[in-house]
Amino acid sequence: MSRKKNDNDAFGPCCSFCGRGLDEVIVVPGPDGASICEDCAHQAIEIAEEARRQSGELMGGAPKRHGKAKAAKPDASAAMGPVPSPQELKDFLDKYVIGHEATKKILSVAVHNHYRRLESSAAAAASDPEFADVEIEKSNILLIGPTGCGKTLFARSLAKFLKVPFAIGDATTLTEAGYVGEDVENVVRYLWQNADGDTERAARGIIYIDEIDKIASKTDNVSITRDVSGEGVQQALLKILEGTVCRFPPKGGRKHPDQEYIEVNTSNILFICGGAFVGLDKIIAERTGRNVIGYGANASGESEASTARGPLDVRPEDLVKFGLIPEFTGRLPVVTSMSELSEDDLVRVLTEPKNCLVKQYRKLLAMDHVDLEFAPEALRELAKAALARKTGARGLRAAMERIMTDVMYEGTGGQASRKVVVTAEMVKEGLK
Fold first, then answer.
1. Residue 231: what pLDDT?
2. Pairing relation of β-strands 270-275 and 206-210?
3. Longest CA–CA separation in the chain, Å
């Protein structure tokens, strides 16, 4: 039987809410003579959590919870606005990516269709009952191309234009659950973090998984050991690519039963996978019986700058022979191949995009009252140097940094306005 509150003096402190004392329950003393027992404290927390949940539902927010968070259901009403047309998407990509016209068209159509399928179909169903029960499946994208051709830039530019959360994952760090490395759920966690913890926004974002060719099966022969970073990762990615409720700890790390989980439905997340797939051109050549095929391949199998750099004619059976399992290739129905950037393309990369390197360095030096200018021959020499590095557009920044060191060391400082013209001779000397 619980004693009365006025019995504190005789039996020690008792709970100010239920009246029980220290001989029945742990009592924590508080200010002004008030105390609370552990049972009443837990009950108060539950009441506060329920009030917070109801308040969040009324305000349309996503209140924090203890325990397992509920998954965000795909909500078509949470669209980011009118879906841009394929022409609008391609026009935007033209401002940031040089070349790859066929890839731009394929990506624009695929992305438009993906976000169009997320819109509410109620009006269409009402006007045409024939499509009331038709559900459009998701079409993830596979980008194939040499390093530095713009695969990551494509995905980043699309997310920027659509104003949706974006995350990049590296397939080389992924392993099966339980092994040393990152679990595949981490790529979804990165997206959730970039969406500022908004599960509904994250469920409509874009995830780019780079180096996807590195998780190809290492061998065609049956092995007694598990391929935990190859075929094992492909198996683990299947449900996430197709659409499932992905559960992960908000702060990362390994899972354990008693911790809090965030749940994100991946059914409406657009996955774009990219990789160089070195050696895929030889597989295609065997299938077609052609010796000269793809980017940088000649009759002897060697790479030459003068050889045709057309995109590869990739088919699912080629990817399977490369080392991807058939179930994995089936979850990437949109496949496009990108060719290697030519010398002319690299010159355009230096000057035409909105965020091109020339504009970046001009802005940087303008802060020190220096007007920077590049001679056309200097740009051509930079493109040749980058082409020799065989790293695509990434080689441009390395070459630019090397020749700009002396210019920025000697040309900056002081308040007087100056002008610096970078010539072909300066580029040649700087790159020696």
1. 83
2. parallel
3. 100
Q: What pLDDT shows up at residue 20?
A: 81
* CA dist., res. 58 & res. 79, Å (int): 20
Percent of the chain with pLDDT over 70: 75
One-letter amino acid identity for 70? K
Rounded distance between C-alpha atoms, residue 40 and residue 258, angstroms: 22
Find residue 174's DSSP bridge partners: 182
Residue 249: its H or E element: none
149-163, 177-191, 218-232, 415-429: lowest mean pLDDT where?
218-232
Please identify which residue in the block is written with the tokens 């080389």.
172
Beta bridge partners of 21: 14
| Residue that the structure tokens 């033209």 belong to | 94
| Virtual torsion, Cα 389, 391, 396, 399, nearest 10 deg | -30
Instruction: Please give the pLDDT value at position 92.
Output: 94
Q: Say whether pTM exceeds 0.70.
A: yes
Cα dist. 59→56, 66, 212, 312 in Å?
5, 19, 41, 51
Q: Name the average pLDDT for the chain.
A: 79
